[in-house]
Amino acid sequence: MAPSGSRSIKRSCQTVLYWIPVIFITLIVAWSYYAYVVQLCIESIDNIGQKIVYLLAYHVAFILFTWAYWQTIFTKPMNPLKEFHLSYSDKELLEREDRGESQQEILRRIAKDLPIYTRTMSGAIRFCDRCQLVKPDRCHHCSVCDKCILKMDHHCPWVNNCVGFSNYKFFMLFLAYSLLYCIFITATDLQYFIKFWTNGLPDTQAKFHIMFLFFAASMFSVSLASLFVYHCWLVCKNRSTLEAVRAPAFRHGADKNGFSLGLSKNFRQVFGDEMRYWPFPVYSSLGDGCSFPTCLVNQDPEQPTSPGHNPPPDKTVVGESHQFPAKPLRESQSRLLNSAPSWTENGGAEDKERRGTSNPAMAIENET
């Protein structure tokens, strides 16, 4: 009982510690709301028109920012489907084998019916000992969550959550709107910050809130801008942070651009096909997170033409039968690389892509 009780206390302490960064950000945002709305707009700005415009614009940025932050924090990371988990008999068979090669033969047999194209650097099947499953492409085990996360990007302490397939769009919008929030505060607070140093403000507590608000917003703007630009680059290249550090390995070797389908398709894979959903933190990403089309055609001759699991329909696409990928992965690759109507590119990009798929035996990289 004692060891169990100590583990429970340890987990409780860890849970509290993990929430400290989120509580810190929440307190900073709550103070910034008070400082901007009450101390700056209500107490310091005399012009009624300017006050109304500032308050309206501020609350739009504030609502979008807090909405995206909430979604990033409380959207549960997606885990691999049950088809990727080992059955009881497979677990027993794997445990009885001592030799690594024999274990790999068992895993290869299991993976034969799954849409898996990536391997370890040594060419072995990617297997998670803790979760007892064959890892889907782009899936990684998070040591903090102690789970395998689909298309894991990183574990972010500022949201106390794993950023992955289910909430990566929300994380991108959180970065965008938090940057917009900080830039807006910095720009509108600047003239009053200058007045603070020229003794143009009345000697009240508002002047100190205005000064610290400007410092905090400008410093956060710099760090958020660098992080946002980096993740925009990752979206354009269709890479996760982990894949940027270490390129995914296929049967032919590591390829950092293995999942890149071109700028437009890479963007739509995260944000979806319908533009009206792009600015809002509502789920609109394409796919099921377990399988992804690649620009590498016929890369795995051992892969079956009919994988054992069928992904659920993509609910975010209205009025189309299109799924991403709804068919076997190789068919999805061919469809995407051949510019299906739902992924049509404009002008020369379409012609270039059509030319690039004329030889299906080649590994194709369609970058725009």
Protein architecture, described:
- The strands form 4 sheets. The chain has a two-stranded antiparallel sheet. Strands 3-4 form a two-stranded antiparallel ribbon. The protein has a two-stranded antiparallel ribbon with strand order 5-6.
- It contains 10 helices and 8 strands.
- α1 packs antiparallel against α2, α3 (88-96) packs antiparallel against α4 and α5 (168-197) packs antiparallel against α6 (206-237).
- With 368 residues, the protein is mainly alpha-helical.
- The chain is elongated, with a radius of gyration of 25 Å.
The total strand number stands at 8
Helicity range of the residues? 40-55%
Radius of gyration: 25 Å
Helices and strands, in N-to-C order?
Answer: HHHHEEEEEEHHHEEHHH
Give the number of helices: 10
Uncertain ranges:
298-302, 304-368
First-last Cα distance: 60 Å
Overall form: elongated
Q: Mean of residue pLDDT?
A: 82
> Structural class of the helices, strands and pairings?
mainly alpha
What percentage of the residues does DSSP assign to strands (E)? Answer: 5-15%
Main sheet properties? 2 strands, antiparallel
Strand order of the largest sheet: 1-2
